[in-house]
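Appendix B. Extra example for self-study. Work through it before the problem class; the solution is given directly after the inputs so you can check yourself.
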Amino acid sequence: MAARSALLKYLRVQVQAVPQNPSSGSPLFLSTFNAIRRRFFSEEVRGSFLDKSEVADRVINVVKNFQKVDPAKVTPSAHFQNDLGLDSLDTVEIVMALEEEFGFEIPDNEADKINCINLAVDFIASHPQAK
Amino acid sequence: MASLGASSSSAPARAEVLALFRSLLRTARKFTDYNIREYTKRRTVDAFRHNQNLSEPSSVSSAYSEGKAQLEIAQRQAVVYQLYAPKIKSVMDLKTHH
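Solution. Structure tokens for the complete assembly:
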């Protein structure tokens, strides 16, 4: 019984000690932590995902503006080589034009995979840095 | 493709050629002067179009090494031109302000 109350007292102290920790802990540490958190998780650094329909519209516009493409043939699911009659060099140029439109760099291994409008839209919509 | 994984002396792989094309276009974008930027881009596209039907491995690899040499020149010049960027922008730059 004595052991139990001693234990309870000990536990209560422990429980009270926990919420005290943040306030009694060094405020300097907290503020620097918050500053770091703000910096690393801020909207501007993390970026935000663009709306998929907006991305699709802008991608289609870029492709339509490419000089070798017949704008009438551009559909949301058009394949660069099969439907639009472009070759691998044109595809590289289109991906570069998409980089300029959305203001970020697409790594080479990802750029190689983009061979139709659908893939381009999916990649850009899932990329936080796209603007 | 037989040329995949081949040594540098034989014809470059398709992926290597496309990577060179992309590097040249990326370097072209770095020029601060509109005229040089557009020229480098146009010259790159024209040269690759001109050589796209080469089939002889020796001529493909000589065109490839020529392109590599041009890439190095363009990269150096892009840095030099950035140091001496023109104060007045081209009219074309003003129009496409975004």
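Self-check: The mean pLDDT of chain B is 86. If your reasoning did not lead you there, revisit section 3.
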